[in-house]
Design a protein that fits this description.
246 residues; alpha/beta; Rossmann fold; six-stranded mixed sheet; four-stranded antiparallel sheet; 8 helices; 12 strands; 32% helix; globular; ATP binding; P-loop_NTPase; ABC_transporter-like_CS; hydrolase
Length: 246
């Protein structure tokens, strides 16, 4: 059974057709590499899955159940989390505080409620252990490497026990060593049975972790196939239009 199924997803912005009848599925514990040039429709598709806006046509199913998202919270309640390129972290806070940002654990003493730092630190430490990350709960984000920052952002998604995690350009503008850290984090998610949609322009990274690759061109899905049955050269041809479809 597929974890996520998109059937005939289209999106219009006035006279602009951003997506045209895109049908795609992702299995539990599968990494899908979503590729395409700027303006191909990747961001629009991700925002539809994340509940930022509804499709003009088509259906979304989660675990074979039709779902309709009116806002991002609806998608989160169905187990969909997004790690955006800017990560949305607060540099002046600790790793644990960032993991719990907006969902802080509280404790009550009499009539007064306090932040439960002990619980947040312990839970964050457990999430980092699951990810096999060297990040520590009390580390300040502003002192972290790009790979550690990604670990914090991913740990934040794990707090809600997600079914699907979408990652937008997670290896952009970081060092080779940090890229390996992030790719390892993606594999850890996969090993936990979480479906991962990896949006990236970096061909080696996608082929390094993806089980399947989907390519969008001008709002249309031109390929969805096992990564083992494709190649960077073929994907480049699909993205540019040198290859019509695969």
């Amino acid at each position: 059974m597929s974890r996520l199924v998109l059937s005939g997803i289209s999106k219009n912005f006035g006279a602009i057709q951003a997506l045209s009848s895109v049908s795609l599925s992702v299995a539990p514990g599968e990494v899908l590499g979503l590729m395409g040039d700027n303006g191909a429709g990747k961001s629009t598709l991700v925002k539809i899955i994340a509940g930022n806006f509804p499709p003009s046509a088509g259906e979304i199913r989660i675990d074979d159940k039709p779902v309709t998202f009116h806002r991002p919270r609806d998608a989160q309640e169905e187990g969909i989390e997004v790690v955006y390129q800017d990560l949305a972290l607060c540099d002046n806070l600790s790793a644990a505080s960032n993991v719990f940002l907006g969902r802080e654990a509280m404790r009550r003493v009499g009539l007064v409620r306090y932040l439960n730092y002990r619980q947040m630190n312990e839970t964050a430490a457990d999430l980092f252990r699951q990810l096999k990350s060297e990040t520590h709960p009390r580390d300040l984000v502003r002192k972290m490497s790009g790979g550690q920052r990604q670990a914090v952002a991913i740990a934040r998604t794990l707090l809600s026990k997600p079914k699907i995690v979408m990652m937008d350009e997670p290896t952009a503008a970081i060092s080779v060593r940090q890229v390996k850290e992030v790719l390892d984090l993606i594999l850890r998610l996969r090993d936990q049975g979480i479906s991962v949609i990896l949006i990236s322009h970096r061909m080696p990274d996608v082929f390094g972790v993806a089980d399947r690759i989907a390519v969008l061109r001008r709002g249309e899905l031109v390929a969805s196939k096992p990564a083992s049955g494709s190649s960077p050269e073929e994907v480049t041809g699909l993205i540019t239009g040198a290859i019509d479809a695969a």
